[in-house]
Here is the input.
Amino acid sequence: MGFRKAVIALMLVIGVGISVSNGLYLNGLFTDNAILQIARPEITAPQARIYGATALNETIKITGTNGFPTLQAEPVAVPGSESGEGAWSVTVPAPENGKMGPFNITVASVDQSGKATNSTTFGNVFFGDIILCSGQSNMELSVAATDNATAEKAGASQYQNIHLFNVVHNESNTSISTIAGAWQVASNVSVPGFSAVCYITGRMLVDWLRAVKQETELHIGLIESNIGGTTVHFWAPPDVGEACNKTGILPWKGEAAQHVAGWLWNAMINPISMQGSGYPIMTAMYYQGEADSGENDVMSTAAYTCELANMIRFWRKEWNQTAMPFVNVQLPGGGYGGCDPGDVDTGFGGWDGIRAAQQRTSRLVGNTGMVVSVDQGGALHYPHKSEVAHRASLWVRQLAYGDATAHAQGPTFLFATKTSPDAMEVTLNFHVSNGPLKLASAWICEKVRPCTWPGINVTCCNGSAPSVVSLRLHGIYYHTDRPGHHGGNISETWSWVPAAIELNAAANTVTAKPLLPPLNFHGWPQYYSDYLGTEAFSIEDVVVNGVGRPACAIVDANGIPVGTYEPTPVLVVPAQ
Here is the structure.
């Protein structure tokens, strides 16, 4: 072990890991029911490690049942430390007999005479795949709070090859290595209090592994590390704050507490990664962004893109897993910001702007997947998490297991065109890998009022879906001689309006026509007589699923919607 790893490991265990007995320490992840990551070199996931600290004049011997390999490690002294203890770490090879578990693993410190001075045993341990689930309250929302809680609880005993670890909440303005929690086997007791998105994703992966891959022995370990109401710069390593100019004391929920960038990374993620010397994982899942949309902090689309993209890169660096799959859940429909997305880089109305940033990140950073949830909920903590977990499981299958049949990517909006500058009809072009395009009712339809204009009747999927596509119109009008107006003056206005759409599934296109606002709508002339006529309007930009709460969604054959996109200029392409 090199000096850097020894320092990291010693930080990890001295005083902050599990003190097994005097002078023998293990990290808090090594408990009964632990899952140890198996090597997956195609996604740079290494074989598991066991690590800790002991007295410098002792040797670590690790033994186990059921064919678990016998291992030995020597503690390494750390210059400057006067504790008399040294750090040790050992990679665990897969058993030669192919057994994946269960193992009872004994870690013992042995003195120079060969006598064991201290020891501990943790049992029911399996090799498998680890998924880390992080973010804020929508990742934290438990199975018990979902609309399918009764069924999930009743079926939990069928998934005892899923093991759960819930990281106890902690915080630090400096990098520490404390971690607390305990692995639990999935059951009707442990599942209800665990993250719904995380657990149901794991459960669906197990269903697929059993039914399609005939993998009945593989275990899935789920680690939940999240806190509601937290912003992205708290989960990113401090280097990300420096790269994105997010340093110094940062607010959280209006508290006066002195929080700095990375304070949750320091306490709840770093103890797992330990700069490449910690607990390897297969995949990371992240569901966050609401707190950056205007409730606790206001970030532009560009700023959030910087932090999220660099957070992913730095997480991979800190685990020393350059191709680690990363699955990000995009914010659902609704949220702060109202109906106008505004300027994409200088404010950009609440959740709409964060959704645009999440979309940008999925294009910028490789081996990532974005779960679209715009059709699944309008409330902040919507209870319908099963479909989001289903879509997340498709991304894990595709990115981590190389499943070409997963079809995790929904339809992708490419560009929009019109035949002349004043044309009032726009053609939207899509790439569809699993067609054809369809129009489906959003789950929130009629449960939450769609964001729309008074006087426009929004119904669900009746051939016209006003909130699915929004168009930004440039309007010209004149002021009359009425009070408060200046006769003869010409004015301009820009505003977003909903569009009626029609699908052409064979061509993977959608035509969109603006629905003009009614009288007295803010930002528009007060009287129809003020308009210069239809020819005075022009369509300049389009956004798909990007404004408010859509009553319907454009989906593919699997029902996966178009991802939310930022405002895109409409091109003028004359008809041939």
Remarks:
- The mean pLDDT is 81.
- The longest helix spans residues 301-319.
- DSSP finds ten helices and 27 strands in the chain.
